[in-house]
Specification:
- The chain is α/β, with parallel strands linked by helices.
- It has a single domain, classed as NAD(P)-binding Rossmann-like Domain (Rossmann fold), CATH 3.40.50.720.
- The chain has a seven-stranded parallel sheet, sandwiched between helices.
- It starts with 5 loop residues before the first strand and ends in a 6-residue tail after the last strand.
Amino acid sequence: MSDERVAIVTGSGKGIGRGIAERLAQDGYIVVLNYRRDAASAHDALNALQNVSPQSVALQADVATSEGAQQLIAQTYEKFGRLDVLVNNAGPFLVKTVFDTTIEEWQEIVGGNLSSAFYCIKGALPIMRAQKSGHIINLGSLNCENARGAPTTTAYNVAKTGLVVLTKSVARSEARHGIRCNIINPGFIETYATSDSDRRELPSIIPVGTMGKVEDISNLVAYLLSDQAAYLTGSVINVHGGLWV
């Protein structure tokens, strides 16, 4: 059993997930990078992590399936004997109306964003309860704590709004076991997927005048995991530069 703190970050081969993984490695965690298909990106990220956290590993698992999530948690526990942090970052995106969304697309979006978090939390809780400690951080989306119509992103918004309910429910049930659970809702964050048109057009609708950086999310994750945030659980924190307040 490792004496070092261990963190899983799902969907962490690139983008926000990779940024969170890198920050946790810098803060002294052994990080389990998780990816579904893009092994090249995951191992590139792992090489960067291992410069500061040599024991960090990359594990392939499709956490949108209960089997994949169980495999990820079990392999982590088998290797390190503990699990201190679970960051549920994985989640596909879809721009479609209800009319145009196929059954398969609905299942992929809800499964990838909501069921994946449930499956991973379900696997992590027995370990964290036995330790009498643990932190779970879910990644939502812009203002998803407000149930509202989303004509072109219906499946995604349904899943992320459900994730808020899951977060608050876990926070209430698990606090007595020493486990905290919070959700971070990123706004427009600049990543590998940001287009040139996004960079030109989006800042004008954001009150602070700029897109967010991956560090804006990873810094908040680090804060939530610190002793300074020991009284925060069930919190919904928007990181959006003042958009839609």
